[in-house]
Amino acid sequence: MRVSILGAGPAGLYLAILLKRADPSHEVVVVERNPPGATFGFGVVFSEETLGRLRDADEPTHEAITGAFATWTTIDVHFRGEVIRSRGHGFSAIRRTVLLDILQRRARELGAELRFGQEIAAVGDLPDADLVVGADGSSSLVRRSHEAAFKPSLAAYPTRFAWFGTERALDAFTFAFKETEHGVFQAHAYPFDAGASTFIVETREDTWRRAGLEALDEAASLAFCQELFADVLGGPLQSNRSVWLAFQEVRCGDWSTGRTVLLGDAAHTAHFSIGSGTKLALEDAIELAGALGRHDAVAPALVEFELERRPVVERFQEAARQSAEYFEEVPRHWDLEPLQFAFNLLTRSGRIGHANLTLRDPSLVRRVDAFVAGGRAALAAPPLFAPLRLGSVELRNRGVVEGLDAGAGSGAGLVLAPALAVTPDGRITPECPRDPCEWREAVERLHAAGAKAMLALSHAGRRGACRPRAEGVDLPLREGGWPLVSASPIPYTRRSDVPQQLDAAGMERIRDAFSAAAARGAEAGFDVAELNLAQGYLLGSFLSPRSNRRDDDYGTDRLRFPLSVVEAVRGVWAGPLAVRLSVAADAVATAVALREAGVDLVHVATAQTTAGSAPEYRRGHLTAFSDRIRSEAHVRTLVGGYLDTLDAVNTIVGAGRADLCLLEPAALT
Amino acid sequence: MRVGVGLPTTTPGAGGALLVEWARRAETGPFSCLGVLDRLLYDSFDPFAALAAAAAVTERIRLATMIVIGPLRSTAMLVKDAGSVQALSGGRLTLGLAVGGRHDDYEAAGVPHEGRGTRLSDQLAELRDWADAPTIPGAAREQPPELLVGGASAAAFARMARYGDGYAHGGGPPRAFAGAATKARAAWSDLGRPGAPKLWGQAYFALGEEAAGEAYLLDYYAFTGPFAAKIAAGNLTSPRAIRDFVRAYEEAGCDELVLLPTIADPGQLDRLAEVL
To answer: In which element (H, E) is residue A102 found?
Structure first.
């Protein structure tokens, strides 16, 4: 087989090695526009898992690479004058020129032809071959030449970064954060041999502009970063085409077309903050060489290659995207204590949670557990079991379950009652409960079991008069319905009745009803009261411009009516007060106003503003929103979003992304 | 987990007599249901007509559409078709609906491709008013079919949780099914539906004559371009592959898995029964 590979980076060279090793009769040509010694960036990093695969694929390369490795097991987080050290992680790194030199030698030794310094204007200029491989990086010429087939989507991330080096070997993978008058800068740094480290500096685009870095040349940028991170660096920074870049995320609809295939960064990139670009490139080469060995023809091998690799790569891309978003929003977490900040950082991509980190670094996790528990003792139960004081109420743990009967035996600290309609026309279904005092005995049982009870007050608004949810959602009653009210006369679904616009008398009636229901809730023994300002129900319909088209004061100030209800209830309810609030562009400002009105807890929820709302459902789909509300509005949060494991709760509470977690029934069975 | 088998309505060489024979033999086998696909512009049978034929020669086995492309039909015609099969079968229909993957089926049906998701939602809401539908046979009025909704988009999962009784997965490795199952359960929980959604999966198989099975899949999915080869590569072609797949789907929480034949030979049913 004749193979033409464009690009002599790790992916292209390693594929050449593996193909020649499998069958010396293959004619493999690698074409590279740069000379053999040229490279950009300094060191590349690997996880343990990759190393095993390299040994199995080609022992001599593995030996040469591991012989040149720097290895370490610690991560240091420099934050607000403290250094938090986490152990047990396992990294290796190598100077990029050394890695390429090893790969070039081995490829030549096995008989691959390497053509350096050869610029290719078009893919057609490559040597004629049975297989053409685009291993030519994130701005791949091969990919650009077949856009219709590869269907690439490119997204530039909204941060800027520059890739520097140092002449000193750091003794840990280092994340360092520095606050300046322009905003926060962070460094991602790691050693790659006995006397050098990679040092990447990153910041938000707005900070980068304010700091004037746009106008600075390479030397002046270097001087800026060197001064900023002087204490972490302990020496000078080095430059090597260290210009400011926006990270380009590359995804492709297909990785192959005909006899042409993309490999490594040409097919997919993953943000550098999870350090997996080279790992993915080498694993791609192993998989492609393996598939070509198992099939007589090229086409089925390319299909198998993509089938095997795509799910793995997409998992890394998803983790990398979450990691990148974390670094975009670092200023959000600036108020966290350094220990919790470090735990939040380590669990940012969803790949490591509380349980996994306990295996790697039990000491750090013990300190996080103790911190969340109040910090008075060295030993503490995991974050789920840390008590929480909400106003006058002490919750024994962070678990919340729905259903008064199910709640008593669950062990959860807080039990959420079913939605209670404050007026007859505010019922979602005819069966909707109306009087909190009917739950007096259930609440007593909860108290006897050590749990607290949360009353959920709601007015269905234009989502009222529906059939039970066992049949479906927002299906209007066939008969026995009632007139609906909402912020504006817009029906919730095409089949829903048109609601009446709520007038001043209606507002007063409903505000009084919320207060009266809260007072009855206190009589019934409830500990916490929650008002539903979310999901397109009556108060939520005022908050969203999609359902509130009023031209009166309640339209220009959409928070006005819901806030007046909160204030009225606050006047009669002495205990902790919660509100349920939906994902929305202005949710942080709303949460701030609610906190100022005396709200103690925000229960975050999906939009459901209209019947067409369709969030990206997955495990923990509301966690990022909770984190944002909690850190930017400085209010405690309760989050659900399909949390079906206790590890999710420990991770979320430990990292300060929420204070309370609503558990799925599946987490308790 | 229950395991059903497909009726070969889209496989080459399947005639009316074969489909009827297939249904008879499936009835006596270890299969929970007979499943059908829906393609307009292809050498294939109408899914409701095929299930009606199957209903006539069976009494036990359930009948399932995996899936029918709802928006290709007017809602009234869709309800009429489903109601007829429901009445003919004595209430054995599970109706899986989705928007499908082909533009040209929409062109051939004279229906706009745009807005298909909204139209499907409307159809599902209408199907929830089953007992009020003026078009269905009286014999089916008291027995609304179980409704499954398919699709992989965020809108599809929300639509499923709003109107469906469960989710019809489009096929793929067990890990893909498990991921979709989590999304389905998360949507179900978020929209306040009681209990859990029914989760249905599907996969292709060929026991012997695998080359013919592959050729059929490459042809059937030719419109997807290179993706056709991926689907063909997923064809389960050995007893061990089928057993592993069934076990992995069960572990992922699948309630009912429909194994779709890629070869229209009733001998496939006996071979599959042996494996199960």
So the answer is: helix A96-109
